[in-house]
Structures are given as structure tokens and as C-alpha cells.
Amino acid sequence: MKKLALIFALCAFTVAGAQASVLMPQLNVTKVIQDKIEIAPEDLPQAIKDTIVENDETKDLTISNAYQLTDAEGNVTYKVKFGMEEESITKEYDAEGNEIVEE
């Protein structure tokens, strides 16, 4: 009788675990970069340069690297790295100078 109760309990936990994994789907969103080209900071679109100068967080920082990114759908964005090593921050902008914030 104890074996039967143990088997029943194991089956119940197995079914409950399987249902829990079905109820919690995982969402993996990946941005596929087709092309990444390093560009000179002065070659950034003027709208991005204006946004950088107007932003209190970035206006006094030096741009160490700038990249033009093109995804698989042909959308162009720009990744800008400010500062060096551990003290660096990276921001991404669209061509109109709007900062793209990862959620």
C-alpha cells in the first residue's frame, strides 16, 4: 500500500512539473546584426551628435568607438561607446538620434 501511495505521489509531481513548464513559456528575442562597420565619431549622423551634446550623461564624455549596425531587415542603428575600459558606457541610437533602450 505504501508503494502504491509513493508511485501515485511521484506521478502527481511529474504531471504538475510538466504543466508548470507549459504555463511558463520562455521568450528569447535576439537581434541579428547583419553588418557592423566601425565609423569615425565625426561620421555619425548630425541628429545623433545633437542628442549626445544635449544629454547630461553624455555631453562631457569622449567617444572612443562608433559603429553603424545593419540588421537582417536592413534597419540601420548606431552604437556609440564613451570612455575607456571599466569606466565606459555604450549607447545605441537610431538614425534620427533617438536612444534605443533595451528592455
From TrEMBL:
Keywords carried by this UniProt record: Signal
Signal sequence, renumbered to the chain: 1-20
Name of this protein: PepSY domain-containing protein
